[in-house]
């Protein structure tokens, strides 16, 4: 019995460290692209809302007049009005797919864009593609901004 060699029943410390290093390297490569994929899904869901807000912002800057925008989140309809005009500048429906929903804190979200680039307004919650995001406007630049969770 003394001359017989014992069989191994466990991994050595070196083997475990090598496996942990390989798992760490795979994680460093895969996780950033995974989280980037989640962010791009949220961006795809919020893009129609951002596009409408950006168009209203541009209209205020180009015309030199204050532009007011109202969004009904339940139906997705929006109305853009320019100060000094009796008729709406633009009205339509925010084109989101069936898996995306819009919500606001009040019945309608209201945004105001000034010619100097400043703005103020409510926020619109967007749920789509398994992601949740809030779209609002930057008060200093009027640019739409998205916060994802």
Summarize the structure.
The protein is an alpha+beta fold.
Please characterize this protein's 3D structure.
The protein is of the alpha+beta class and 149 residues long. The protein has one domain (13-148): minor pseudopilin epsh fold (3-Layer(bab) Sandwich). Helix content is 34%, strand content 30%. Strand 7 and strand 8 form a beta hairpin. The relative contact order is 0.17.
Furnish the topology, listing elements before pairings.
Layout: H1 13-63, E1 67-72, E2 77-82, E3 90-93, E4 101-103, E5 108-113, E6 119-121, E7 124-128, E8 131-137, E9 144-148
Antiparallel strand pairs: 1-2, 1-5, 2-3, 4-7, 5-6, 7-8, 8-9
Total number of strands: 9
Low-pLDDT residue intervals, each spanning 5 or more residues: none
> Treating each run of at least 4 consecutive H or I residues as one helix, how many helices?
1
In the CATH hierarchy, the architecture is: 3-Layer(bab) Sandwich
Percent of residues in helices: 25-40%
Full CATH superfamily name: minor pseudopilin epsh domain
Q: Roughly how many Å is the radius of gyration?
A: 26 Å
* Backbone shape: elongated
Mean pLDDT: 84
Helix and strand content put the structural class at: alpha+beta
């Amino acid at each position: 019995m003394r001359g017989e060699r014992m069989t191994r029943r466990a991994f050595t410390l070196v083997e475990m460290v090598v496996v942990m290093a390989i798992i760490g390297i795979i994680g460093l490569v895969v996780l950033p692209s995974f989280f980037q994929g989640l962010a791009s899904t949220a961006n795809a869901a919020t893009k129609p809302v951002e596009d409408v807000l950006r168009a209203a912002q541009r209209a205020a800057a180009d015309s030199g007049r204050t532009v007011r925008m109202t969004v009904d989140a339940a139906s997705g309809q929006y109305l853009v009005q320019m100060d000094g005009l009796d008729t709406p500048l633009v009205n339509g429906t925010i084109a989101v797919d069936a898996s995306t929903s819009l919500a606001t804190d009040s019945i309608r979200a209201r945004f105001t864009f000034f010619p100097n680039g400043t703005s103020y307004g409510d926020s619109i919650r967007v749920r789509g593609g398994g992601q949740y995001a809030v779209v609002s406007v930057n008060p200093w630049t009027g640019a739409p901004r998205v916060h994802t969770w």
